């Protein structure tokens, strides 16, 4: 199979949109990602997948910490900014939890210490031990077949 067909097949899985953030010394970095999931409830662990060619890979390794910020449907511009899809002079508003930058007003921000890493194919999986989090109300930003969207609740009979 060719890579484009594989990528199109993976795009059929609707996801939420996150921005992974970290800080090295005084430099705050972010990266849009949808490769995120919970791993364990006890202990609380999550995983993210980062391309081995991404600048963010070395930043997370160096800091040893990261946050996963689940974006609301009002934060598409933030996602596009960190995906390199939109040049913007707008400053991104960050809060800080445990000295890790988090996106203000994200639906959730999950702050982790790197627990372990696994190089798998062309990506590195970071297992994060959850140290803290914050939650906000709102509707999620979604991603499906290369396009942003919003959550459509289904009424049950």
TrEMBL record:
Keywords: Oxidoreductase. InterPro entries: Flavin_Rdtase-like_dom (IPR002563), NADH-dep_flavin_reductase (IPR050268), Split_barrel_FMN-bd (IPR012349). Residues 10-150 form the Flavin reductase like domain. SMART domains: Flavin_Reduct. SUPFAM superfamilies: FMN-binding split barrel. It comes from the Bacteria. This is Flavin reductase family protein.
């Amino acid at each position: 199979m060719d890579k484009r067909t594989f990528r199109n097949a993976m795009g059929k899985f609707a996801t939420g949109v996150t921005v992974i953030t970290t800080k090295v010394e005084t430099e705050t970095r972010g990266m849009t990602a949808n490769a995120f999931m919970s791993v364990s409830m006890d202990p609380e662990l999550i995983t993210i997948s980062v391309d081995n060619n991404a600048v963010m890979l070395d930043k997370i390794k160096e800091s040893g910490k990261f946050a996963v910020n689940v974006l609301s449907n009002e934060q598409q511009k933030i996602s596009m900014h960190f995906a390199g899809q939109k040049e913007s002079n707008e400053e991104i508003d960050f809060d800080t939890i445990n000295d890790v930058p988090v996106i203000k007003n994200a639906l959730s921000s999950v702050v982790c210490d790197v627990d372990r890493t696994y190089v798998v194919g062309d990506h590195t999986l970071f297992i994060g031990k959850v140290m803290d989090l914050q939650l906000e109300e709102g509707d999620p930003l979604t991603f499906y077949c290369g396009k942003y969207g919003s959550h459509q609740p289904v009424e049950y009979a």
